[in-house]
Structures are given as structure tokens and as C-alpha cells.
Amino acid sequence: MQGGGMGGRGFGMGRKLGSGDLQLLILKLLDEKSRYGYEIIKELDERSKGFYVPSPGMVYPALTYLEELGHATVAVDGARKLYSITEAGKAHLEKNLSAADALLAQFDRVGERMDRVRRALDAEESGEESDHERRGPRELHRAWRDLKIALADKWHSSREEQQRIAAILAKAAAELIGK
After folding, report:
1. In this predicted structure, what is the pLDDT of residue 135?
2. Helix 19-32 vs helix 87-95: angle between axes, to the nearest 10 degrees?
3. What are the φ/ψ torsions at residue 98 (nearest 5 degrees)?
4. Residue 36: exposed, middle, or buried by beta-carbon count in 10 A (0-12, 13-18, 19+)?
5. Residue 15 DSSP SS3
6. Where are the domains of the chain?
7. Burial per residue of 78-101, b for 16 or more beta-carbon CB atoms within 10 angstroms, e otherwise
8. What is the pLDDT along the chain (179 residues), one digit of tens a residue?
């Protein structure tokens, strides 16, 4: 497969998933079960908890490329196409299984972080903050309020903008916890 991937560096903040990495993730998902293109998009969205949602313009060319390589087959089902992994695709996945597993593990980690942020924002909104949180430094409260206002202003923005914002928040969270 062609490069353009993370090359072992990980799914970093502000980085796009490279085509080779996306193809590898698709093979991993197809190894679990045959899927339609939209199911692949939905599965990656769910596994990353909304942090990474590939566009159809990324997924369908990747599927076509996997088919051209002989790593996937397609069965026409009415107006839809059902994709399955081939033996050659399984062999390629087996050679790159640790990379595929690492990518999915990163999706899980980023997704969990995003869930924590969402829970924290929900708790703040519903007034469920603790006494300790209410007594925190004024600067943190001001920053928290400004963040909530900024997020509210961007809540219905484009998917790309939401992904950019999620990357900024994930990077900020990583810096705060020292990772």
C-alpha cells in the first residue's frame, strides 16, 4: 500500500489519517465482517467517538484501491456495494496487524478522552460540579467559561471544523496531563 500514513508516529493532533493507514483500518474492519462503505464510515466514527469520521471521498477510493490490489472484493447489492476481504487482503493485514491494532487502540484512547471532555462539559452545564471545582482559581473558571462559549458558538459548524476543534481540545488535554 502507498504511504501517506502515520508511519508509527501515531494519530497526532491536527494530523489527518494517511491513505495507507485508512486502507489498513478498512482491511481490519472487513476482516471482522463484510461491510458497505457507509458502515465503514460509521464504524470509524463510533470507534473514535466522533473524533475521526472519514468522508465518503476518502473511503470509497480506498475501497476501490483495495479492490484493485486484490485485497477486497465487491458484491453489488442493488444500488449498494458490499465489500469483503480476500485471502491476499488477509495476508497483507496479518503482516501489518500490529500497525492496524495500534491505530484502533489510538482511536479508543482519543475517543475516551473526548468522552471525558463531553462528560465534564455536561456536568458543568447541569451544575453537577463539586465544591472543589466551584472554589477553583478565578482564572480557571474564566477559561472554562470562555471555552464553553467558544464551543457553543461552534457546535453546529461543519464536520471538518468540529474535527479541527476536537484536535485542539485533545492537544490541550494532552498538554494538561503531561502526555
Report:
1. 56
2. 120
3. -65, -35
4. middle
5. coil
6. 19-102, 111-177
7. eeebebebbeebeebbeebeebbe
8. 444 443 343 444 344 678 899 999 999 999 999 999 999 999 998 888 887 888 889 999 999 999 999 999 999 988 899 999 999 999 999 999 999 999 988 888 887 877 777 777 776 666 655 555 555 677 777 787 778 777 777 777 788 888 888 889 888 888 888 75
Residue that is written with C-alpha cell 489519517 in the block:
17
pLDDT at 60: 93
CATH annotation of 19-102? 1.10.10.10
Count other C-beta atoms under 10 Å from residue 1's C-beta. 19
Q: Which three cell numbers stand for residue 70?
A: 486484490
Pair type for strands 80-85 and 35-36: antiparallel
User: Residue 36: CA atoms inside 13 Å, Cβ hemisphere, count?
Assistant: 9
Beta bridge partners of 81: 76
For residues 71 and 27, is the Cβ–Cβ distance under 8 A? yes
Contact predicate 52/17, CB 8 Å? yes
